[in-house]
Amino acid sequence: MSVENVLSLIKEKNIEWVDFRFTDIGGISHHISVPAVEVDADTFVNGVAFDGSSIHGFKGIEESDMVMIPDTETIYEDAFTAHPTLIVYCNIYTPGGDRYDRDPRSIAERAEEYLQTTGIGTAAYFAPESEFFIFDNVQFENSMNKSSFEVDSEEAVWNTGRKEEGGNLGFKIGVKGGYFPVAPVDTQQDIRSEMCRLMMEAGLRIERHHHEVATAGQGEINFRFDTLTKTADNLMKYKYIIQNVARQYGKVATFMPKPLFGDNGSGMHVHQSIFNGDSPLFYEKGAYANLSEMAIHYVGGILHHAPALIAITNPSTNSFKRLVPGYEAPVNLVFAKGNRSAAVRIPIAAVTPKGCRIEFRTPDSTANPYLAFAAMLMAGLDGIKNKIDPRALGYGPFDKNIYELSDEEKAGIRSVPGTLDEALDALEADHEFLLQGEVFSQDFIDNYINLKRADAKAVAIRIHPYEYELYFNL
């Protein structure tokens, strides 16, 4: 959309505010709202100034001036404001006009530009399956003498005996019993449908929605694939709309990977492929799962670099509460067709040549999508460039249910890192593939590792309530 068209839209829709947004390193959105009457063509050229020192992981106070430059292709109307507001996503620049190398959205765009310089293809397509929980209540507290959390849901298995005014209406969802029963068991049909309606108004193409496996209100909405940066933009819209619709219904939505003990967590399976113009490059009829050698090498790059990659695709300490055996978690670094116990699954049901893709199942939605998609692409491209063959390295194909194998049979299968610190160690040792084409900078990698190490340390030094059960009476 041209600047002129944006300005015309502001008048046509009687827009009162233009909301300029960007995403920080941790994946949190920030915004500045400007009166629409103050927005003109120069605004889209000169941008909106802000204090970078107040953004975690950005700039020091001595060099804090930064500029948001809006991307007019990202504009959509905010469904949650009383005053008509237009949202636009921005890239971050220095006052001198250079892209800021710690800006996640700029990193995503550089990854797409790098793909084109390699001559491998013209576009990479991504489609995340981002799961979430919708709770009725959340409470948590951390202090010197107290540490606790509690969530609740009308659907939850622990509420079968709860008495409320009017009585308990039953139809609770058991552990691992949520994959997709109809109402009245599924109480969230209308909430998800409203989320989808607003996503479609915001420009997303919705494919389906449904309840997910876990008890207590786990859901999933699938939207159609797009190019790397556009898909990351769409995922930021997705999360914003889900959390705000939940709030309108008096509920709360979370993308936390493992908010409940003893049931499935929330992942973000990421489908991905490369095209050259209109031609799909991952398809070869008659080959294993109809995958081309290019696709096999892309998988090889993902699996070879997976320990380091997971520091970006699963960047929270809570991520590793999900990445444990027994809860359909993709902890095994192998690939296979149609096999959900593998870290990389090749979908084979109703797949056309253009729909041929690989699915990396390990990530979760605590990942910053701009960084995660860019890092996955860079790992896959490294696999293509260096012809990394996952078959020769023992990464499959593995067409058995890995969860049911004996320890002896699983001995040769590499697993994901067990903690965030282990993943960060791997990223520290293996990140040269991210530096290619100056997509990620060394400064960004060093800064990112320091930020995430601080998270890991903050959790590690705190006393866990379960330690009282284990040790208090010794």
TrEMBL record:
InterPro entries for this protein: Gln_synt_N, Gln_synt_N_sf, Gln_synth/guanido_kin_cat_dom, Gln_synth_cat_dom, Gln_synth_gly_rich_site, Gln_synth_I, Gln_synth_N_conserv_site
SUPFAM superfamilies associated with the record: Glutamine synthetase, N-terminal domain, Glutamine synthetase/guanido kinase
Binding-site positions, L-glutamate: 264-265, 322, 328, 340, 361
One Pfam family recorded for the sequence: Gln-synt_N
Name this polypeptide is given: Glutamine synthetase
Location(s), subcellular: Cytoplasm
This enzyme's EC code(s): 6.3.1.2
Organism domain of life: Bacteria
Keywords: ATP-binding, Cytoplasm, Ligase, Magnesium, Metal-binding, Nucleotide-binding, Phosphoprotein
Similarity comment: Belongs to the glutamine synthetase family.
Originating organism: Paenibacillus psychroresistens
NCBIfam families: GlnA
CC cofactor note: Binds 2 Mg(2+) ions per subunit.
Reactions catalysed according to its record: L-glutamate + NH4(+) + ATP = L-glutamine + ADP + phosphate + H(+)
Biological process terms in GO annotation: glutamine biosynthetic process; nitrogen utilization
Binding annotation for Mg(2+): 129, 131, 212, 220, 269, 359
The protein's required cofactors: Mg(2+)
One GO CC term, this protein: cytoplasm
Chief localisation class: cytoplasm
SMART domains in alphabetical order: Gln-synt_C
Domain (GS catalytic): residue spans on this chain: 104-474
GS beta-grasp domain location: 13-97
Annotated positions of the O-AMP-tyrosine modification: 403
PROSITE patterns: GLNA_1, GLNA_ATP, GS_BETA_GRASP, GS_CATALYTIC
List of residues binding ATP: 207, 223-225, 271-273, 340, 354
Self-association and partners: Oligomer of 12 subunits arranged in the form of two hexagons.
